[in-house]
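Problem 12. The chain below contains 60 residues. Write out its predicted structure in token notation.
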Amino acid sequence: MTDARWRTATRSSNNGGACVEVADNLPDRVLVRDSKDRDGGVLTFAPTSWSYFVEQLRQR
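Solution.
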């Protein structure tokens, strides 16, 4: 995962709270991790699944 470019999710707060980081620059997967535990587990999504998830959140 050395090619992953991590960014803080736009809906995450800046006050040290619960934040996630997303790496969506890879061609065949989107990676998600906890910004407070960067060495912990990473969730992996297919790009189409991630897009659907984000779209569903936007509609709420």
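Discussion. Residues 19-58 form one domain. Students who got a different answer should revisit the alignment rule from Section 12.3.
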